[in-house]
Amino acid sequence: MVAAGWPGVDPGWSREIEVASTSAADEPGTVRRWHLLDNGAQLSRRGLVPAGTLLCVHGNPTWSYLWRTLLAAGSDPSRPWRVVAVDQLDMGYSERTGTFRRLADRINDLGDLTDALGLDGPVVTVGHDWGGVISLGWAVAHPQQLAAVVLTNTAVHQPAGSPIPRPLRLALHPAVHRWGTTTSDTFLRVTHALARPPLTPEVRDAFMAPYRGAGRRAGVGNFVADIPVGPSHPSFPALDRVAEGVRGLKVPALVLWGPQDPIFSNRYLKDLTARLPHADVHRFEGAGHLLPEDRDIAAPVFAWLAGQGLPVGSGEDSAPGDDSAPAGDATSEPLGAGGPAGNAPLWAPLTDLAAGPAGGDTAVAEMAPDGSVSRALDWRELERDIAALAAGLQEAGVQHGSRVSLMVPPGVDLTVVLYACLRIGAVVVVADAGLGTRGLSRAVKGATPDFLIGIDKALAAASVLGWPGRRISVRDLPPGRRRLLAVETSLAALSRRGAGKPPPSQAPAPDAPAAVLFTSGSTGPAKGVLYTHRQLAAMRDTVAATLGIRPGARLVAGFAPFALLGPALGAVSVTPAMDVTAPRTLTARALADAAAAIDATVVFASPAALRNVLATRDSLDGAGQRALDGVELLLSAGAPVPEPLLAEVQRLLPRASLHTPYGMTEALPVTDISLEQIRAAEADAAGGTVAGAGNGVCVGLPVHGARVAVVPLAGDGTAPGDCPVTETGVTGEILVSAPHVKDAYDRLWLTQRESARTPGWHRTGDVGHFDAAGRLWVEGRLAHVVTAPGAVVTPVGAEQAIERLDDVGLAAVVGVGPAGTQAVVAVVETVPPARRAGPAAPHLARRVRDAARRAGISISAVLAVPAQPTDIRHNAKIDRTRLARWASSVLAGGRPGTP
Question: 785-891 adopts what CATH topology?
């Protein structure tokens, strides 16, 4: 052994120990030599008392080197933990035994070792790959010593009827197995190649070092051969015992996962979380099988440990008097009960209208391209169809807690299936197709739905891209098409089956999960946001109280969230003829046709949709304009809405009160402001009559039931504090507290921890300030703050000033260069569009600099682009991170190209 040659390893951690074996693989009295990386002696020499022991178990074909970052972190005097990282027998630098050791032997071996070491708790097991199974086997067998479990990509169960992962099938093939795992080092090299990013040569050499020569790789081959491929395999009973034993573990659990793992896919994560439903889970987007190499897992592991009480001996089944509830009690209650706070279920207004005198009035409709109503249901029909489909879905296996991915465009079908799922207590998963193929696929796979309900296009994508979930089509399909798409049944068939049957007898409890809604993905991979039934009901009540939308309102929903919320508000809802995943497809004619169909009083459309409505207003005839004249309230959200755009919309909708609520997927809405209030705020800013007015977009006052505050920015552009303030003119990260704020980020423990690190508040990632009138001004995203020499620059104020220039459309202010010394660069979309991207013409650059200077910002460089790169979903949120990379390349002398 040459511990000094292993990058990241303190030579003092390396040790060997002789252990008496009690394994069935060995003769009685056999003693085996184990190699460990163990910082225990080092902590003792320093006089440090560890909080407990991390027992780290590697998989195949790695060794204890995999856990070096945990060893280093556990040696920190401020948070000492003993870390014992084992080399399993026949692996790493432990003894080559010459025996075939099966799963039960390896679990027993680990127990022999911990007995020899005298580990008596608190012990936290840490496992990866097949080391995860072995560590859990030890955990199940040692409940009195067990304090917690930590897992990275692993599996404890092979789903019935599902083949083992393809790479392992190949490694097991008789023509490949011995050559690929033992004779050659192919299996090692292929495994190491799974790292994202690639391993450095030094680290790769360290992983290869114990396995030089076929004689030292027998354990690698035996490990692969011991994979239980089915019930007849000798190790299947041991695997089954571990898998079932895990269900009884009540200790804290943390699961860290690399979703890009070709071996342990998300179906194994889903199985683990079903067996450990209390586990904290974090998926590291972009990471794969070698997660401990791909990402820093030491920081989250030790942060998580710091937050646990870690009582020892709590690994056995819960005893009488504990806080565990019988199955079902936490997820359902008698229909009609409102829960502790008396919340009416989300669908209560819909049910009330169906039972009342308005039951025969139109409830939901959708428009055809020719301007006619293609389909509509009244309130009684809507209630009937929801009840029938709910009964049919239950017969098909959808139940409390089932995850159901809905890939159905807004309209009648989506309304019916959404509310049917909610009635059952299923968790609806909604990811916008506007995320694009990659983003949508990432979202669906990450949510691991049990069922996927979709139109043909979505079902075809599911087949090609391998999306999980039993598949249900919207319409009845021909037999051949059903087989091709692996569709089990259809919503139409389920509705027929459920017709006339009683609705669900129990409503979900207020705090049961209700929905996973995905963010736009404009600031990184889209995140799943988990809402409970209570929070969805609170969202409904907040919108109703803030905007005055009451039962009987008539809503044109050109924005998907409000197409789904309309029935819960008791509002007649119509979906215009448009592609809701591409807001720019809403035309003035389509908007007018939808408004005329229901005598609309309310319109909700994104800024991008409004721009196209204005661009196509010449197509309106007299009847269309009269329909728009009846609109009383217009709502627009999803991105900042400039006052000039609203002024043009006001001319198109002369009677409407124009509102631009500010919010996000995690909390919709947060504040609200009208056009008149925007103009008053801008006048206050221009005249200097109200302190703090200006430098950003004024989004108004908090909505009903919400509190808003900021955490001040530091000089490095971060918001490190945890003390919210509402002082005038203090720029900081915006925080919100309200009954309708999300419950958590789905399977993103680290992200949730960061967003909730200020107790009682959700940290939005936006930055802004309050003026003396209490109005909130949004200045941009925390991630987009520019750290110029001696100053922290927030982008939105300068962007707004630049966009007032006649020959500028959209503007973005980004930072180029190292943090703390960044150059402030303006990237402008010109009107008319520039022929090519690159440095702006001198006269335009001068005017842009002057405009930014009036906003208090000094611009170092001005670049012009034909069109700004925007996120797919809103067509309005500029991708500033992408722009910053492009601007950096251009200013460094690279070819401009297209950002």
Answer: GMP Synthetase; Chain A, domain 3 (3.30.300)
